[in-house]
Amino acid sequence: MKEPKWLGWARRLQAVAQTGLTYAANQYDVDRYEAMRELAAEMMAEGSDGDIAPIRELFAREAGYATPKVDLRAVVFREEKILLVREREDGGWSLPGGWADVGESPADGTVREVREESGYETRAVKLLAVYDRKRHGHPPIPFHAYKLFFLCELLGGAPVRSHEIDDVDWFAEDGLPPLSISRVTAAQIGRFFEHRRNPLWPTDFD
After folding, report:
1. Which domain holds residue 11?
2. How many angstroms separate the CA atoms of 42 and 51, rounded?
3. What is the pTM of this model?
């Protein structure tokens, strides 16, 4: 799924506006960057056929120097199957994970996400991949994001459901369920099975 050019332009324009508002020294600059942010919101609303109001609200909540968001995902194997959770939001299956939290290391955050979303206790043992989200076939989102995939060793626990997850299960490489491709793609899961068969491979990155 190729990202539309207008989304990349709007995202970059929003990032420049956000950073500019952080360091603006006078009202003239503030007004200029606010106008730039409004233009980015108009571009996204027009391109997505959506309402501009929630986009304005989304942009207004972002402050400080603009940097990519970080999505953490856990790759957990049991025998020859991989752990997936089913998202209540869209009904698709995904690797356990979510946005990184401030004050928490990427590895610790990934382990916490596995516990909260699946009920299993794990230990992060290797960073398998660092991907630029927009290069890997995911549906577009308003912000630039990096995806970090950690191989996690299964220590114990039992499957549980949560307010975000309505099922937890293990799947073979040739028997994957419908995926939540906003979070993970079949190509990525296939790549991680390849990493399992080749444990000396280095970390993937874009």
Report:
1. 5-61
2. 9
3. 0.79
Q: What is the pLDDT of residues 44-58, one digit of tens each?
A: 899 888 899 988 888
If asked whether residues 121 and 165 sit together in one domain, one would say: yes
On whether both 175 and 74 belong to a single domain, the answer is yes
CA distance 186 to 180: 10
Residues 148 and 175 in one domain: yes
Q: Where are the beta strands (DSSP E) in 63-134?
A: 69-78, 81-87, 93-94, 97-99, 120-132
Asked if 16 and 105 sit in the same domain, the reply is no
How far is CA 206 from each of CA 4, 90, 131, rounded to the nearest angstrom?
Answer: 19, 28, 6
Q: What is the pLDDT of residues 26-42, one digit of tens each?
A: 998 989 999 998 999 89
Query: Do both 105 and 186 map to the same domain?
Result: yes
Across the strands, what pairs with 146?
70, 132
Q: Which two structure tokens, joined as six digits, stand for 123?
A: 């230990």
| Mean per-residue pLDDT, 96-119 | 96
Total domains present in the chain: 2
